Amino acid sequence: MDPPIAIVTGANSGIGLAVTVALARAGHVVHAGMRDAAAPDELLAAVASAPLPAAAAVHVLRMDVGSDASVASAVASVLAATGDRVDVAVACAGYGVIMNVEDATVEDVSSCMNVNFFGALRVVKAVVPAMRRRGAGRVIGVSSVAGLIGLPFYGPYAASKFAMEGFWECCAAEYKALGVHFIVVEPGPVATNVAARIQMKRSPPGDLAPICAAFEAKTVRSMMESMQSADECAAFFLRAVTDPTPALRYMTHEGSAELLRTKYVDLDGAGVAAATAAMSAPMSEDGGEKKKEEEGGEKHSE
């Protein structure tokens, strides 16, 4: 029996690299998409660190998900080599940006959307026709907890991931009966080189400065302390590929799942608004959050 064929974008580092290695070790032939195909050293070293099953392999594939022509050409080359077959496509390429809406330019938001949403869309457009013809396939998108809950200062990034979530959910309904499964994997904080490079822009308007500082001190620090490894995340992607009846969503981080449970029973959004506002609430001098006194409330001293 021929090994399954996979395409993974963003395979040169982070989650994409970990997913590529996990799929290869599970017996796939993986076409590892990356913008700079001349620099796959980290990926090849990871692949070489343990023997692969017979017939499994990793092939480096030049692909810039920000370009229609690059994605179409790269996927066409794989389909030509495999007899019009791709079993799994994983859109891992990502672009992270954290900033206040007043700092963010339209170009900032557009760049984020072009990679995180339109880049994934380009992959979908390239692989799905072949999957539909074969009546089988799985298209996996890397979302985020920020694609489900709007976090302070994550506006551009959250917009791209909310878009992916909605698009994937629509496609899942359209293609399930044809044997093509659309799946999103939703990591929480992940320790990758990309995560290390993401920094909040530090020049918000004066009124927002304490809110920004509180978010960095409380929420960003908490995220850093609870990060998963890329390999831990990759295990969920492998489940999405191998589960006989895959779910629409796989969430990798239990802390994020707890926040999401609030949203799904919060029909007017008040609970989520309170939880996310608390993430960036300025601190008082004694280290507690500043809170407005309720009207008519009484102060009590101990």
From TrEMBL:
Pfam families linked: adh_short
Composition-biased stretches (Basic and acidic residues): 287-302
Region: Disordered, residue numbers: 278-302
Source superkingdom: Eukaryota
InterPro entries in the cross-refs: NAD(P)-bd_dom_sf, SDR_fam, SDR_oxidoreductase
KW Phosphoprotein (keyword) present: no
Oxidoreductase is among the record's keywords: yes
Record keywords, A-Z: Oxidoreductase
An annotated Gene Ontology molecular function: oxidoreductase activity
Family: Belongs to the short-chain dehydrogenases/reductases (SDR) family.
Protein name: Uncharacterized protein
